[in-house]
Structures
1.
Amino acid sequence: MAQEADNLDRAADLTRALAEAQIAAVRRQVKPEQVQNPDGTWPIVACIECDADLGQRLALGKIRCVTCQDLRERGGVRQWPR
Ligand SMILES: [Zn+2]
């Protein structure tokens, strides 16, 4: 009985650690990559990789267009199951 409770505790710990890792991964993905100027403009307004207009991604403080960000994410370690 005590053994079973230990296993349940371990499973709960594992589940919690996994969830926290996934939350941290999403936070890294959504966090702004540049700081907005006090006047509301952005220091970087075009993709740093291909110079494309950042469009709506600018409002998120991103510095790469969707295409370049996607390529970058595919090239790196997969952080979130899709
Ligand atoms: Zn780009």
2.
Amino acid sequence: MPELPEVETTRRFMVPHVEGRRIVAVELRHPRTGRRHENPADIVDRLQGQRVDRLERHGKFILGRLGSGLTWVTHLGMSGRVLIASPDDPEIAHTHFWARTDLGTEIRFIDPRTFGFVAVFTPEELKKELKLGRDALADLPRSPQLAARLSGRRAPIKSLLLDQRIVSGLGNIYADEVLFRARVRPTRPGGELTTDELKKLRAAIVAVLREGIEAGGTSLSDLAYLLPDGQAGGFRERLFAYGREHEPCRRCGTPIERIVIGGRSSYYCPNCQK
Ligand SMILES: [Zn+2]
């Protein structure tokens, strides 16, 4: 389930292969991968022959700014990943989209569960379709602004951290890690966090995301997410909470507990997190 660190790792890997390059061939293989377009064939028409000026990221989206003013959007969804390949590399199952540059490099989009998508949007479509909040890494609100956003909210802080309109880029894994480091229990109503806790929360978001990127993201045992060269991201070994039910807390030794919040598994230490 790629989140900001996995998406940022993917983007950084893609930059030397894509930025300044012209897209010379494109194929969309699966209709669901193109579902954000009324007419998915627009993706091919709009991308073919275009130069990719810059490759940016906002939240969980990779944004390729094209010479035409359109934006090539890649969203990895739950199980999507990008593979950088050459045309004669054997194809991996579930390759639903590929684009070839004038250097002969192929950017392949592999997505077994098809929750991800590829799109090429006009500026108006981009605004309407993605509804982006403030990026959790590049544009994280200061703690007084976070306080204003959470003020009066009864929802669990875990759910509020997953709300992409509040901060964009966090998902289930990193939200649990952020709450562990800030020592805040995931069930706490967002509006009840103290000024001190909000400061710790904000600092934890920055630290966890930076470390996640440095480690190349988190590849779980399903290996759904891999770096674009096929390597696994190494942050899993550095997780304190996520996926560690019944295992001893790395800080105090108390077994980590799992509860379900808003339909998502949430892991926390009942001793460290208040
Ligand atoms: Zn603990």
